[in-house]
């Protein structure tokens, strides 16, 4: 005897029935603003590294220290995020947004390297918390059938984050190695202040969070609000029958062993149990590899180009080159975004191919063979964008709701450990040979792609709580049919 849809109404059923509307678009708008500003601030130090090295006469140790400190604070942020579930989504987003905005504002008033490092560490921590939680919030309110496309579209805004930074640099810097750093950061603060105001005004809570934290009535009220905001026909509003079926689904989840594995105080070992063991280990390495390569590329690329074109006469051309690399990447992201929702490609296959593309691109940059370095820099930039797009979606979807913050947060946290080591490796390898870091990036990317091939699980067009639902139905079947 199987328990099927007529007597149960899952949260995914309701969200899919509601569809994409004004509520989801509102969450999407402030999330994209956060993403644009997050990317701008997370790569800021690498872009201005030549200028601050010249202005403050930084040693190799100090150059690597800045990057390591920022990425260490991102590990701290990942840890905080993984334990933020009891506080919901809205509160952590607003608090971290305010701290982020304030730390950037204070950075404008200090012309000292170590003061700069202190405020940059606050920015790195608060911006990642805000980015991760807002991304999780959006993923939890999007309908299943187009979740991949809407989340995947953020890679376009990742590029816009780089473009915003480069355009502000071109407005305030004389060259890549010389500029008014305080004025530049103040311009970035104004953009961030606008985002902060928008977030405070339009941020809302996640119905999925409410439903799994014994706040079912609040969840139902929020779903009613979403339906009305999306201007849906009255027949799909939350009728008394639908509310009863939805409450039965929540009760079903709570009555089984699911509750033990998804309490507010989730044990860390939960993500290493059963099918999640192989998933977690694989994702940990892929996040580590991708963060190391991405952070290294962002942090060392401006300095690499500055050394390759090692005169101030060419540094304006270098900024234009970085601008072109980001602009040219944009149209190539379109097919990748569509591929993430296609079963023939899906999340895992596309991610595997992009990791291998990144490894091959970095290999050709390092060896300086086969086409121009500029071409392979574009390919590497494209692959990094695809990696982050799919890896974030895949990690959010593969874990159930109450393991999601822990699984996603700990994965990103381990990835950021790779980011911490990346500036040290990149700066000292670049001091030996400007292209040498890319050889290291190549090896670790290819290993990550090979490991991902062996992971059989995909999440393309699947319910976010499908594994939980299957486990519950299976256990009920065993109880009713003990033979």
Describe the protein in words.
The chain has about 475 residues and is mainly alpha-helical. The protein has a single domain (about 5-210, about 265-470), classed as Up-down Bundle (Growth Hormone, Chain: A), CATH 1.20.1250. It has 21 helices and two strands. Strands 1-2 form a two-stranded antiparallel sheet. The longest helix has about 35 residues, at about 275-310. It starts with 10 loop residues before the first helix and ends with a helix. The model is unreliable at about 1-5, about 255-265 and about 465-483 (pLDDT under 50).
Q: Would you tell me the structural class of the helices and strands?
A: mainly alpha
Find the count of extended strands (DSSP E, 2+ residues). 2
The coarse silhouette is: globular
Percentage of residues assigned to helices: over 70%
What composes the largest sheet?
Answer: 2 strands, antiparallel
Q: What is the CATH-assigned architecture?
A: Up-down Bundle
Low-confidence stretches: 1-6, 257-264, 467-483
For this entry, what is the oligomeric state of its chains? single chain
Could you say how many structural domains there are in total? 1
CATH topology: Growth Hormone, Chain: A
Strand order of the largest sheet: 1-2
Give the CA-CA distance, first to last residue: 12 Å
What is this entry, summarized?
With 483 residues, the chain is mainly α. It has helices at 11-18, 22-42, 44-47, 49-56, 60-82, 90-107, 113-141, 147-152, 154-172, 181-202, 207-211, 216-229, 240-255, 258-261, 276-308, 312-339, 346-367, 373-398, 401-432, 436-453, 466-480; strands at residues 173-175, 178-179.
């Amino acid at each position: 005897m199987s328990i099927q849809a007529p007597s149960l109404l899952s949260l995914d059923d309701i969200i899919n029935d509601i569809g994409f509307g004004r509520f989801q678009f509102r969450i999407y708008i402030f999330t994209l603003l956060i993403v644009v500003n997050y990317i701008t601030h997370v790569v800021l130090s690498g872009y201005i590294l030549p200028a601050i090295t010249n202005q403050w006469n930084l040693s190799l140790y100090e150059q690597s220290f800045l990057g390591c400190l920022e990425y260490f604070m991102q590990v701290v942020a990942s840890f905080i995020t993984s334990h933020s579930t009891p506080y919901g989504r809205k509160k952590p987003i607003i608090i971290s947004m305010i701290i982020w905005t304030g730390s950037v504002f204070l950075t404008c008033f200090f012309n000292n390297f170590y003061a700069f490092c202190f405020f940059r560490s606050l920015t790195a921590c608060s911006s990642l918390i805000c980015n991760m939680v807002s991304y999780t919030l959006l993923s939890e309110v999007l309908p299943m059938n187009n979740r991949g496309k809407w989340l995947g579209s953020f890679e376009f805004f990742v590029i816009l984050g780089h473009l915003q930074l480069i355009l502000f640099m071109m407005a305030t810097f004389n060259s890549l190695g010389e500029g008014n750093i305080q004025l530049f950061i103040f311009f970035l603060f104004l953009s961030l202040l606008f985002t902060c105001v928008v977030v405070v005004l339009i941020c809302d809570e996640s119905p999925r969070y409410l439903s799994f934290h014994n706040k079912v009535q609040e969840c139902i009220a929020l779903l009613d609000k979403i339906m009305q905001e999306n201007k849906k026909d009255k027949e799909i509003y939350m009728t008394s029958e639908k509310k009863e079926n939805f409450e039965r689904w929540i009760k079903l989840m709570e009555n089984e062993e699911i509750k033990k594995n998804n309490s507010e105080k989730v044990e860390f070992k939960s993500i290493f149990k059963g099918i999640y063991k192989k998933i977690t280990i694989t994702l940990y390495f892929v996040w580590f590899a991708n963060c190391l390569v991405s952070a290294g590329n962002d942090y060392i690329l401006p300095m690499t180009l500055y050394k390759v074109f090692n005169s101030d006469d060419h540094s304006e051309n270098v900024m234009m080159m970085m601008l072109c690399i980001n602009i040219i990447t944009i149209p190539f992201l379109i097919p990748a975004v569509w591929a993430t929702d296609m079963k023939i490609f899906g999340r895992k296959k596309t991610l595997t191919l992009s990791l291998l593309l990144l490894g091959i691109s970095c290999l050709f940059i390092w060896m300086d063979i086969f086409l121009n370095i500029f071409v392979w820099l574009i390919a590497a930039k494209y692959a990094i964008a695809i990696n982050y797009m799919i890896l974030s979606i895949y990690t959010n979807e593969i874990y159930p709701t109450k393991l999601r913050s822990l699984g996603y947060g700990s994965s990103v946290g381990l990835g950021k450990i790779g980011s911490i080591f990346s500036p040290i490796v990149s700066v000292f390898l670049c001091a030996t040979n400007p292209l040498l870091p890319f050889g290291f990036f190549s090896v670790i990317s290819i290993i990550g792609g090979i490991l991902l091939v062996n992971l059989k699980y995909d999440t393309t067009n699947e319910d976010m709580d499908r594994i939980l639902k299957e486990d519950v139905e299976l256990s009920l079947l065993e109880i009713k049919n003990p033979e």
